[in-house]
Amino acid sequence: MAIQHMNPEARAVIAELIRLREGFIQNRLIFVKSDRMIPILKVLGATDEDLENMKTVSDSLCDDPTLPFRRSKNGRFYFDFEQSKLRRLEFQPFALSVEEDFVRHDSGKIREFEEVDGNLQGNTALHALFLFKALMFHGMSFKQRPKLDYRTDNFICTLFNLRTVTNKDLVGEPALEGVHSDGVDFTMTTYLGSENMTRDSAVTFIHDIREQNALRWNETHPEYNLGSHQHRDFLDTLLFVDHERKHSLSPVYAADPERSATRDMLIFFTRKPVVEGHISHPYDSLQPHLSLPLEVPLV
Known about the structure:
Helix content: 10-25%
Strand content: 25-35%
Shape: globular
Largest sheet: 9 strands, antiparallel
Structural class: alpha+beta
């Protein structure tokens, strides 16, 4: 449909998407607040019902394989720009290594997460988030990582649905690893909700790539601090070029220490397929998921 035949809301969203993409290309990072994000997702296909359902999708998460204060699920998706569609990929284990600027007790460990199921996968708001991310990064230039295949136009996206929990026994750390990168080309984080969380919880700090890995958020060097952002409202979204920035997060604090505090997020790790020699090479299949198939047009 030609833009002149669109309704005013759609035209305004297209103009907003153009501004955001220009800002992302220039600044390598954008933070989109809820009041801007929701109209965008609606024009990109999210229904009001699915937006509402997204607020509770994290209630079905499972115990995390290595972090006692976290509940999690993940799934692998393929940005197939050659065929203009997103599709679900088969289950694979997951790993992040020290070589990828991820320093934690489970660095290099092959982890197996419970899978994202139809409750999230079938949500039109999730489809719109995938499309939003594609519109932001597709075709832009960025710093390349070693051992990724930049000959292809396509990208793999590992989606994490995470709940961080703080209670009397545990302090929930959205980034226990401290200063890090995510081993990908583009990272996007979208806030779904929280319970009993203080106003100063879970601040994301952005650091120059020269910052030392594994430093806690409050131990970093001021000269490498590039700013901070805090997800507070439903669908607040942060997107950045992962190999050009590092980041850290402060903990989740409980407003009422007698009750648990929770923070629910979607994390979109997007990178090129790996080549031989990468830690994830044995776990980077491009085969479709047979029991949870999905295809979404990238238009």
